[in-house]
Fold each of these.
Amino acid sequence: MLNLNLPKKKGLFITGTDTGVGKTLVAGGIAAVLRGQGLKVGVFKPIASGCREDGILISDDTEFLALCADADYSLSVITPVTYKTPAAPVTCVQIEGRAIDYEEIVAAYTYLCENTDVVIVEGIGGAMVPIDAEHTVLDLAVEFNLPTVVVARPNLGTINHSLLTIQAVRNAGLPVAGLVVSGYNAFASLVI
C-alpha cells in the first residue's frame, strides 16, 4: 500500500489490459464529453515513459489529454513524473537512476482536485505493470479510489485479458465502471 492520502474527487481511473490499447484515446474522449457538458475537467497521467525532450520531458499522451480537456494548467501538473525510456516505470527508475517522486504526484493531483469539477486519471501500461519494486499501477489506482474503466484491444485473447484485469480491479476493492474495446472495426468483419 502506498498511503498517499490523496484527496477524494469525482472521476474515473482508466487502465488497460496492456500498453497501446487506447487508454489515452478513451480518457481524452471522456474528458471532451464532460467538458462539453460545461464541467472543468482535470486530466491526470501521473507517470509517463517514452517522453521526448524539448527542454523538459514531454509525453504525447499528456499533450493529447490537455487538448481534450482544454486544460488551463501546465503539462507538468497533468504528468508530474516523466521518463525518456520507453518502458515500465520500474525499468525507467533503474535505467535513469531517478525514483518516482510520489510527493509530486500528490501535489499535482491535489491541485487538480482543488481547481476542477471532475478528474480523469490515466494509468500507464496495464493494471499490473510495476511502477516500482513494490507497487503496480493497480496499487496506484487504489490510492485514487475511483471507479475504473478497463480498455482492451480487439484481438484474440481479449476476453481472457479483460476478465483477468476486471477481476484484479475488483479484488483491489475498486468498482469497475465499464469495459471499452478500443479499435474494433465492425466493417472489417462484414462479408460483402
Note: The mean pLDDT is 95.
Amino acid sequence: MLRMRQICLVAEDLDTIEAHLRGVFGLEVCYRDEGVGVFGLHNFLMPIGNSFLEVVSPLRPGTAGGRYLHRRGGDGGYMVIMQCDEIAARRAHVAELGIRLVSDSSNERSDGIQLHPKDVPGAIAELRWNAGDEDLAGPWSPAGPNWLPAQRTDVVRRMSAAELQAADPRALAERWSEVLQLPLEENGAGQPRIALDDAELRFVEASDGRGDGLGGLDVEAVDREHVLHAAREHDLEVREDDGVVVLCGVRFRLV
C-alpha cells in the first residue's frame, strides 16, 4: 500500500496562502503543528478528501524552508508524503540504495523517513506508516488528533496527481520508481507516471524557469466555476484553456 496522503508547500506569507486556499477551494484548517517551530517554521494542514495539504513558512532566517524559497525563486511545492505499510522493509530498501535521510522518527502511532533531496530529487519524499492505516478516513499523525470535522468536499474532492518537473523527467521518474518499487508507465501524453493506490506521480519537463521541483497538483473539482471565479477574485493566475489556477507557486489543475 502506498498512498499520496500529504502534500507540503512552502510560502513566504502563510496567512495570505491560507486565505487563498479557503476562498478558492473551500478548505478549512484542521491542525497547526507547534512542533515545526523547532525547525524555524510555522504551518497549517487542510484536508482535501482523505489526504492533506500542508503549507509551511519560515519564522526566521536560515531555515531549510527559507533556503528552498530562495533556491526556487518563491513559493512552491516542497514535499510528497506517502502513507505506506511495511515501513521497516521500505527503510531497509532505502538503505540498500545508499539514500541518506533528512529525518527518521518513530513512535507507537507513526513511523516515517524523509529522503535526502540530493539522492531523490524533485521534492522531499517521505514514507510514513500510521496506526489505523487500513481506514481511508483514519488517523494521520501529522494532521493532529481530530481532522475529520475540518473536511470539506463541496468545492474540491481530492488530490489525484502530483506533477514533478525536471530538466530530464524520465531520469527523475526512473529514480522515484526505483525508490518506491513501483513500475514506470506512460500516460496518454507520453509523460512518465507512477501509479500509487489513490493518485499518480507525473513527471514533466521543467519549462517555467524554476528548475526541478514539485510544480503541479491535480485536484478533482466539484464546483469548477466557483474555483475559477474565486481565483480571479483573489487576483490569482487563471488559465481557463487547461483549467489551471496558480496558487502558492503551484499549478493546480482542475480535473
Note: The chain has a mean pLDDT of 96.
